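Entry type: protein chain
Record version: 2
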Amino acid sequence: MNKPVFGLVVGGVLGIFDGLSALVSSPEVSAQIVGIVIGSTFKGLLAGVLIGWFAKKVSSLPLGILFGLVVGAALALPIAIMNSNALHHNYYWQIMLPGSIVGLIVGFATQRYEPSSRAIARA
């Protein structure tokens, strides 16, 4: 498994938990939890691929973590803005913080992940 695919898997799994965190931080949105989890999973998949691609190109733990943090926050910001405009309620912290943490963890994981030597030989 190469780094972008590994990032995709980690980002997707963490995206599910990112969405489920809405039940804790904003219980009033529990009726919309399915849509929130689907959106967060998609956001995690996209972040995972981008962060994995970066990890494949740049081998630096601090830069990988920083890139992950920025990508996670950048993907969460439009969602926070859309929710603020549509619901007239400020969910910036509830959306930005878990999204940024997902990016940070995926950045760390993809930098630490070493593809098997057989996968490297085929590439």
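Comment: The mean pLDDT is 89.
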